[in-house]
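Troubleshooting entry. Yesterday's outputs looked truncated, so today I'm pasting the complete records for two proteins to confirm everything comes through intact. If either block looks cut off, that's the bug. Protein one:
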Amino acid sequence: MRMAKWGWKEPVVVYAGPAGGTRIPVRDTVRAAKVLAKEWPKRAERGAKYFAACRACLAVAEKGADPERARKAFVAAAEEAGMLE
């Protein structure tokens, strides 16, 4: 199953959506990529850590990279943007 190899050991809960008020549990790289691409709040930082998280998620999908590295990058981006629970 494809999702299992992209899954994370621990979920990350962020507040995302247009205004950043929607609580979203992110359990895998696919969901993280969707949050980064479509649900990142307009007010949230899109700095170096955001783009590193995007690249990390893409590396999992394209190259079979470790999903936990994508999780770590996603957490760093969410923290930078003030989105963590």
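Protein two, checking that the full record survives here as well:
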Amino acid sequence: MSLLKYSIVLSLADVQRIVSSSIVSSACFALFCLWHRHFLWSLWDHWVFVFTCPDQRPNMGVFWYLFTEIFDNFRGLFLFALQYHIFIDAICLSIRFR
């Protein structure tokens, strides 16, 4: 007894339609992957810059002044306190005003 009960017969138009739809879907998937890669890397670069604060030139903020005055061994502590303070406040406020 055969495993296939029905034989599949495809016409030439069906094969062309399957091939063209697979090419279009592959192209869409490739474009999505390229866009997604670019978006994620730019997002990653942004957050790495925000959380490591490598730029120490004077600007409108007060971080540059604090980082020039503190010792290098306390830099991680001040980065944590200054950068994550807004995040921690947002969590506390969202819990309070739920």
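Both blocks look complete. Sanity check on protein two: The chain has a mean pLDDT of 78.
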